[in-house]
User: What shape does this take?
Amino acid sequence: MQDYVFEIGGLFISAFISSTIAPGGSEAVVAYLVTTGHYQVALIVAVATVGNTLGALTTWGLGVLAAKKFPAATLLSTNKQKALQVVRQKGIWTLFFTWLPVVGDALCFAGGWLKLPFFQACLIILLGKLGRYAVIAWLFV
Assistant: This one.
């Protein structure tokens, strides 16, 4: 039981941190846990997806807060300015790609900054993250 809490809890924390502004490597944790065979693959994918989605929504919230305090987009870093431009031009479905390294966090931030519809954005982000973890799990089963 203690290993379960440590490993699955560690996966959740790793996935959460990996999807905020801090770098992380939750994919490696998913791959490791899948290869051990100690847990159902669906559980591993679900925990990683939920943690990573909640981390993305944290970054989303930072975007909302930043937009209130700094309404001029020129105050943002170049990466975040590009993400804002892409999300403005391409729309809410760009949030499906928040699982991508480097640009994913900026896309979440941009979605919050632009105040895109929250529940639609949450679902689209979740689908992208789920797809990524499902592919990783499938590769290591």
